[in-house]
Amino acid sequence: MDIVILPTSEHVEKLTARLVADRIKAKPNLVLGCATGRTMEGIYDELVSLAQAHALDFSRVRTFNLDEYVGVSPDDARSYRHYMNRHFFSRVNIDAANTYVPNGLATDLEAECDAYEAAIVAAGGIDLQLLGLGSNGHIGFNEPLSGFQSRTRVQPLAPHTREQNAGMFGGDPEKVPTTALTMGVGTILDSREALLVVTGEHKADILARSLEGPVVGVITATALQFHRRCHVITDEAAAAKLNLREFYRDEVSHLPVWRGYLNALD
Length: 266
Ligand code: GLP
What we know:
Elements: E1 2-6, H1 9-26, E2 31-34, H2 38-54, E3 62-65, E4 67-69, H3 80-87, E5 99-100, H4 109-122, E6 128-131, E7 153-156, H5 159-164, E8 179-182, H6 185-189, E9 193-198, H7 204-212, E10 230-235, H8 236-239, H9 245-253, H10 256-265
Parallel strand pairs: 1-10, 2-3, 2-6, 3-5, 6-9, 9-10
Antiparallel strand pairs: 4-8, 7-8
């Protein structure tokens, strides 16, 4: 796991977007796992800017989102489908038919989850998975004690998550859906490469526990310690509680692949 620590969240957004753009250039039919949340907004903005500046072609890219609220319509501004259309899909030349978000309105939710897993397999698996970090350590909506081999499924939301996500629901945690559909931890671990993107002082504690703490089921992000190729891109504020941060900085500065990106940010 490489941990790339950058001065600000703007640097994080730029580097992450460049890395995604490079993967698309290298593989025009990339299967991209998408995340939502505030951290991702700036990344999609950057990616859209790069697409415009460098005629980046999304026409063959396929995307799979991590999660969706149950009972919220795709047209509803609070749904993750709406978020994705607004921040990303409507702004690049991606084919809407190639964008997958679990359907939180499906009448048979379990069948929907199974079909979602099958669609990922049919696409050849996820090449690059973008991940944010919930402040309770969840990835996707994999709440504490999600099995590390879990697949896409119906997941009740933790009270903490409903509080954190209340902003989009008038500030009232009671109005946040009680359940969501989420890719499983196992689905995420199957991705060929993953990028965990974390910014802000408020994430410093949970990031340190996720990366340097013991692997525990109550912090599902600790499962990423088992990922075959996970990189963490973080700003100084979120990295502040990492004990070995000077080692990570030094390590990354010696890896040619990261040096190129770091030089390009100056
Ligand atoms: C939600 C999403 C997660 C996301 C998390 C962090 O709970 N289900 O996938 O990583 O929010 O969001 P933010 O970037 O707003 O802190």
